[in-house]
User: Which sequence fits this backbone?
């Protein structure tokens, strides 16, 4: 089965029908998706700014991360569940939309950036955890994360202006 | 009031935005980025006030950093929100949800900067008062978020 075939199948599921036909279901799911986005990116931004050495420099990097992790993970969970639901209902429209592809690529790259920081750069975190200005590699990870998540937000918003024709327009 | 709103809609900025779907889309996208900045800052500042975040840090230091980020977010939101509003001033101005959004924005921002405040305010406040003030601030920002999303999706 091709990717497009999978998208067509998803759109034919009962869940997809419920979302497509519901007057208020679609706006409510999108609202929760946006809320999850602002919660996750809004709090993750503070971790990235600390990695960059721009703010909260008197706190350890690990402390900033541990304090905010529950909030940005909660936001990500909201986005994942609502995003998957929305994708199910409009899979073929999303498949053909360039901004959807940019958004998904940016999310994948942001995940790879986070994994690189966690599994490689963080091995020597004891050397820079309380540094007001962390080493170049750490600062680069913070900047790349900010750029990618801003791209996700921009692409996501652009999707709603370019994707839906027959569907309710947010 | 309707004459003023109609005049705003007829300005060059307003007509440029109204006639360009691409410009509207990019302004709206940047507006959401500004809102994320404000939301993150409000959460950081008021969770610290509740004692639920960065308990080892000086509350005043966290508030100063959060206020700075919030001002940047509000500036971005205002810079992008103003032309978006101008393009449909008459409709938006008459919309109850938009009016509620603006009222909550004014209330939340005023409360955050005037009552929650900065360095001096925190030092003078008891722990209990800090928690009460932070809960009220969070409720106002949450109300703003709900009104903003409702306007975005239902109008």
Assistant:
């Amino acid at each position: 089965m091709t990717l497009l075939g999978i998208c067509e199948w998803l759109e034919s599921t009962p869940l997809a029908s419920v979302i497509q036909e519901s007057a208020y279901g679609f706006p409510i799911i999108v609202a929760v998706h946006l809320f999850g986005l602002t919660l996750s990116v809004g709090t993750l931004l503070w971790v990235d700014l600390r990695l960059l050495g721009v703010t909260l420099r008197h706190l350890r990097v690990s402390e900033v991360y541990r304090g905010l992790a529950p909030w940005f993970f909660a936001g990500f969970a909201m986005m994942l569940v609502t995003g998957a639901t929305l994708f199910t209902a409009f899979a073929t429209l999303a498949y053909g939309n360039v901004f959807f592809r940019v958004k998904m690529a940016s999310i994948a790259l942001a995940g790879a950036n986070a994994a690189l920081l966690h599994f490689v750069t963080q091995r020597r975190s004891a050397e820079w955890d309380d540094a007001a200005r962390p080493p170049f590699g750490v600062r680069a990870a913070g900047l790349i994360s900010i750029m990618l998540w801003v791209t996700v937000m921009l692409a996501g918003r652009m999707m709603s202006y370019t994707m839906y024709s027959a569907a309710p327009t947010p | 009031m309707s004459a003023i709103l109609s005049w705003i809609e007829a300005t060059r900025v307003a007509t440029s935005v109204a006639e360009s779907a691409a410009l509207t889309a990019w302004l709206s996208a940047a507006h959401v980025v500004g809102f994320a900045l404000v939301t993150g800052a409000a959460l950081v500042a008021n969770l610290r006030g509740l004692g639920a975040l960065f308990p080892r840090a000086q509350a005043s230091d966290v508030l100063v950093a959060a206020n700075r980020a919030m001002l940047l977010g509000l500036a971005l939101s205002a810079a992008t929100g103003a032309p978006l509003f101008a393009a449909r001033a008459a409709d938006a101005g008459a919309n109850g949800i938009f009016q509620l959004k603006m009222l909550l924005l004014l209330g939340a921002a005023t409360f955050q900067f005037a009552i929650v405040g900065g360095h001096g305010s925190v030092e003078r406040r008891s722990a209990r008062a800090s928690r009460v003030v932070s809960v009220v601030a969070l409720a106002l920002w949450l109300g703003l978020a709900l009104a903003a999303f409702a306007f975005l999706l239902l109008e």
Summary: Chain A touches chain B at residues 27, 30-31, 34-35, 37-39, 41-43, 45-46, 55-56, 58-59, 63-64, 67-68, 71, 150, 153-154, 156-158, 161-162, 170 (CB under 8 Å). The helical segments of chain A are 3-11, 14-21, 25-51, 61-89, 91-95, 98-119, 136-162.
